[in-house]
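Memo to structure team: turn this sequence into structure tokens by end of day. - J.P.
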Amino acid sequence: MNGMPPKKLILASSSIYRRELLERLKIPFEVESPDIDETPFPGERPEETALRLAEQKARKVAQLHQDALVIGCDQVAVLDGVQTGKPYTFENAFAQLKAMRGRKVVFHSALCLYNGKTGRMQSGIVPYSVTFRNYSDERIRNYLEKEEPYHCAGSAKSEGLGIVMIASMEGEDPNALIGLPLIALVAMLESEGIEIV
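Reply from structure team:
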């Protein structure tokens, strides 16, 4: 741990859901949106995309805050080995949910903690599996009109109405599905000298 911990903790994300999750730890932090290109590289595996983007987000914010610990996150959903990203539109979200009904989708949540002072990067992937219900087209439309989950990987916002689309979930940390694996983050923070309680 090279001396004293950095002065501040920054969440490199524009997600209000990640912010709410981090608030559960009851430690002071700031939020800054990294604004990067999230396009996957050709031939890149979904897990590699998520990890690369999480690390890129953290490094970008750390350039402006070299005394900080920066948390970077990204998430991709995978169906039959194919990456499913953020839909951005009603039409794309409808197609995603139609393809996923009655199927199992794995959400790969990438997390990294970057120390701007020492250059130390801790990172990893926390997978979470979701089996979707065999819902109707009408239910998809109703859900999308009420929830508008166009900035969520796979169009499934489990922390909101998306729960009605889900049959079952499985994984080590339910927070990973929302986009910030807190169990892994606590271990990373502690290894940087930040005790949560």
